[in-house]
Amino acid sequence: MSNELRVTVKSLAPTPTGCGVFLGNGDEKVIAIFVDHSAAAAITMFMHHVKKPRPLTHDFIANILTGLDIKVEKMVINDLKDDTFFARIFLHQENELGRKIVEIDARPSDSIAMALQQKCPIFVNREVWNQAENMIWAFEEASSGMEDEDDLGEEEEG
Prior knowledge:
By secondary structure, the protein is α+β, with helices and mostly antiparallel strands. It has one domain (4-143): Bifunctional nuclease domain. 30% of the residues lie in helices and 39% in strands. It contains 5 helices and 7 strands, in the order E-E-E-H-H-E-E-E-H-E-H-H. It has helices at residues 37-47, 57-67, 108-118, 126-131, 136-143; strands spanning 4-15, 18-24, 30-35, 70-81, 84-95, 98-106, 122-125. The protein has a 7-stranded mixed β-sheet, sandwiched between helices. Helix 1 packs parallel to helix 3. The two termini are 30 Å apart. 32% of the residues are buried.
């Protein structure tokens, strides 16, 4: 059994200080990561494929990665300490010198935005998943006024 659980972004809900990003892998549990307004705006733009007139920070980083022929392989929420989530982004580069995978520490908010932008999978470490509070009640409350939609953050079929 893998130590990582694949999740999707179920929705975002505004809070007084930012937004809650709800992550889930089914109907039994949903975890919430609270992010600031700017991170929530970036996540929302990538979820809805918003075209921007000029590159924003995540676009700029993606352009650098593309220029260096580096792909974002996955992101993992790997730790939870004092109600703060931690994440890692895994980058993959292959060229004439060989294959290299680099693991980089990052905020979950930036990692989620980058994963959505790059259409790569989002994972949560199983220990973190088990330790995190089940926020399905908050997700259901936030979703009660919204129309039923497919999970956000999944790749489009086609």
